[in-house]
Amino acid sequence: xxxxxxxxxxxxxxxxxxxxxxxxxxxxxxxxxxxxxxxxxxxxxxxxxxxxxxxxxxxxxxxxxxxxxxxxxxxxxxxxxxxxxxxxxxxxxxxxxxxxxxxxxxxxxxxxxxxxxxxxxxxxxxxxxxxxxxxxxxxxxxxxxxxxxxxxxxxxxxxxxxxxxxxxxxxxxxxxxxxxxxxxxxxxxxxxxxxxxxxxxxxxxxxxxxxxxxxxxxxxxxxxxxxxxxxxxxxxxxxxxxxxxxxxxxxxxxxxxxxxxxxxxxxxxxxxxxxxxxxxxxxxxxxxxxxxxxx
Length: 295
Prior knowledge:
Elements: E1 9-13, H1 23-34, E2 37-44, H2 49-56, H3 68-83, E3 93-96, H4 99-107, E4 112-116, H5 128-138, E5 143-146, E6 157-161, H6 172-182, E7 185-193, H7 200-222, E8 229-236, H8 240-250, E9 255-259, H9 271-281, E10 285-289
Parallel strand pairs: 1-2, 1-4, 2-3, 4-5, 6-7, 6-9, 7-8, 9-10
Antiparallel strand pairs: 5-10
Helix pairs in contact: 4-5, 5-9, 8-9
């Protein structure tokens, strides 16, 4: 597995709203932890002339929209200088085009994408949230989704989920890297539905096997952090994302780390949809990791 958090290049997407800027302090904290750099990014698709006026602060139809990209860059640069300490600050980027596609394409050259689910429209999860879902679905760069009430740093407790698939293991490395530098505890959790079993005895027998397998995975992939790792098999009558939401409400997690592809291999249709469902229903930050395509 590729280690991404050593001097990471962090891409932070913003639409200039106050709510979208909440991702920057978290990005700065991560950059400080791993000696990384932060690039502010804005993707823009002009629907009509009024969109240009919004960004440029113009009210006249005579505004020269040809200067829009430069205006956006200067705006990003100003925010970058204001919010990001110089050692961690990289040159901002502006791309014209579909936001989700532009973020995904730009993210290929980065180690981490950080986004907020709130945008300048004020409609949480409906506008920028839909962009987040598309980026989660298509990006092979890990994506960290921040809510207004998320508090990643100080990082004390991480929820790491697995369905025992090879694909889900890709989430282990970033969780381990965060835990190593912060001393955070990791709850490695496997969730299984009661509906898979005909009798309670079958469920109990299966539970013992799953607990053993989970501990073996912890030893293999998180062995250097064994004093910080706790394994748990949870049988639930809820959907996986519902159980994860329940856990975040009952335990003080700072970060959820999960893969967007599960044991079925059906990207986004299975575990991928779980990631998006979790993102829509929790206030905890979610780090979504997608296995890299084989060449």
